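Team,

Forwarding the record for the chain on the shared tracking sheet. I've put the sequence and predicted structure together so nobody has to dig through attachments.
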Amino acid sequence: MRNLILSALLATASLFGVTAHAADIEAGKQYVELSNPVPISKPGKIEVVELFWYGCPHCYQFEPTINPWIEKLPSDVNFVRIPALFGGLWNVHGQLFITLESMKVEHKVHDAIFRAIHKEGRKLATPEEMADFLVTQGIDRDAFLKAFNSFGVKSQMEKAKKLAMAYQINGVPVMIVNGKYRFDISSSGGPEQTLQVADFLIAKERAAK
């Protein structure tokens, strides 16, 4: 009984904490409401998008915070990562991500790619360099190189460029909820606060259904 009472008190305290924080989250402060909502990829789900770049140190530093949060998302939320394509190495790394995603192995090497770039000093600037590294992660070299230059990957690259323009982003990491709300670490006040804004907007969209 004591444990039940303690759990109830903690749950109540947590609820009040969330409510108090939610009261401080406002459009124009922590997040921006897009004037032209962008269609989502899975109608019926609440979509959360993270736009990122493998070469971005802030994206790398965000990983330990966002990854555990992603794992706990409820079933009505669809999380999507999209590479930001601002030209040069951004596009090369974006093509790397989209290629691995098309091969359905991106989740297996996502962390390793970030570490290779930010801890091991690898640039991964060419398909051959990428392939050499990916072999060490159990990815077939020839299959990767074939997929990298495929029509399907190039089509997804064009789609990613159009989405970034529609979201009106100018940096990363940035998050979009349900194609309507844009926010980032700076506007939110920090990594943890960014996910609190995401939770608030997810709840807002859920309540609107």
